[in-house]
Amino acid sequence: MSSTPDSAVRTYISSRRDAFLEDLGAWLRIPSVSADPGHAPDVRRSAEWLVAKLTETGFPTAEVWETEGLPAVFAEWPSGDPDAPTVLVYGHHDVQPAAPEDGWHTDPFEPHITDGRLYARGAADDKGQVFFHTLGVRAHLAATGRSAPAVNLKLLIEGEEESGSPNFPALIAKHAHRLACDAVIVSDTGMWAEDTPTVCTGMRGLTDCQIDLYGPDQDIHSGSFGGAVPNPATEAARLAAALHDADRRVAIPGFYDGVIELTERERELFAELPFDEDQWLRTAHSHAALGEAGYSVLERIWARPTAEVNGIGGGYQGPGGKTIVPARAQLKLSFRLVAGQDAAAVQQAVRSWVADRLPPGIRHDITFWGATRPCLTPLDHPALQSVARAMGRAFEQKIRFTREGGSGPAADLQDALGAPVLFLGISVPSDGWHAPNEKVELDLLLKGVETAAYLWGDLAENWRPA
């Protein structure tokens, strides 16, 4: 247990709550929309604003890092202890587009507080969850009497996450020596619910592709030629139908090679969560759960690899009929990957599977759009246990564990830096990431501050990386 006094941390946070929210509001007013070239100056202004605020917080190093696109922010605060862990906090300062006509009740870039909630684009994703670290480290120092954090603390706050992080791998590679760390803390995540605080232990990876199928050199008459030549639209449908077996397992040979299976303990922890399938189906706008046999819904979306048909098309799509054999068809597929899978190996397995299933007379091209690797931190990792303890102290209850079914840049950091990835987030599903009226619950935001205040001492006391 960290020696940081809980009462001292809470008193400090309470005394600076209003100033903290005022500063956060000023940052949220900067419309740092990375997807819109017209907002590129705002993304830069957001980065410069954060550098100034981190310097004011006490970080002796705070810099704007240039990329081929939009700027990131780096900050560093050494502990002074050569044996202390080095921790890198990751987040992003760019935001999704937002406009009042999208359904916002108020101006998305004019923050307002009502009923204990702060509404603004970026309130939860991700400025609010980045910014709680500024007050968290100050509370840590005030409560312990330290002049520097108990760990060597680094921040890397990206400026293009909402645009797919196109320049992030190159940024990491360029600055790998300065980003070197023992653990990465991702504060661009959430938890199960307001009354069920959780820590995420991993994210799935992703690779996706487009398969273009070519048959006749042009559309041809189905009466004169149909049934006697291969039809690319039919073959696209056959590929889609063959993607899974009768148990809804992906039927591509080699697809499951290397998959790290769920442990019984992990399955037990997932089962402890208060999961309401009917509510989940309403959120999914779906009418039944369906997936790989032998696994629960949460296991399927968090810990099992999947294949999805994202789109299929070919031939005539207009009103009425047009009796042709089309010249071409198209299939778009995506594959979510779990720890142990190799994206390059999966891509090769897909290529071989497609080639083996297509008949003579059908030519094809496959285009993959890159890959995001999965990441997973074991439950018994000491740094993960520190995160759970710190959050447990802040929330004063048991912390449960989840995974994330989506994908993100965390694995890029894991691979480049050779460090485990941990997740510390306080956002809840109702916060409406990417949606109109995005918000963050203020009580939870301050719990994030408190968790960060406890975390650095807990890590220093309970983990000495080799």
Write the layout of secondary structure elements.
Blueprint: H1 6-15, H2 17-28, H3 40-57, E1 61-65, E2 72-77, E3 86-92, E4 112-114, E5 117-119, H4 127-144, E6 152-158, H5 168-174, H6 176-179, E7 183-186, E8 198-203, E9 205-214, E10 220-221, H7 222-225, H8 232-242, H9 264-272, H10 277-283, H11 297-303, E11 306-314, E12 324-325, E13 328-337, H12 343-357, E14 363-372, E15 375-376, H13 382-395, E16 400-404, H14 410-417, E17 421-423, E18 439-441, H15 442-462
Parallel strand pairs: 3-6, 3-7, 7-17, 8-16
Antiparallel strand pairs: 1-2, 2-6, 4-5, 5-18, 8-15, 9-13, 9-14, 10-12, 11-13
Summary, kept brief:
With 466 residues, this protein is α+β, with helices and mostly antiparallel strands. Helix content is 35%, strand content 21%. Strands 1-2-6-3-7-17 form a six-stranded mixed β-sheet, sandwiched between helices. Strands 11-13-9-14 form a four-stranded antiparallel β-sheet, covered by helices on one side.
Structure, described:
Strands 1-2-6-3-7-17 form a 6-stranded mixed β-sheet, with helices on both faces. It is of the alpha+beta class and about 475 residues long. α1 (about 5-15) crosses α4 (about 125-145) and α4 packs across α15 (about 440-460). The mean pLDDT is about 95. It has helices at about 5-15, 15-30, 40-55, 125-145, 170-175, 175-180, 220-225, 230-240, 265-270, 275-285, 295-305, 345-355, 380-395, 410-415, 440-460; strands spanning about 60-65, 70-75, 85-90, 110-115, 115-120, 150-160, 185, 200-205, 205-215, 220, 305-315, 325, 330-335, 365-370, 375, 400-405, 420-425, 440. The two termini are about 20 Å apart. The protein is elongated, with a radius of gyration of 25 Å. β1 (about 60-65) and β2 form a beta hairpin. It is built from 15 helices and 18 strands.
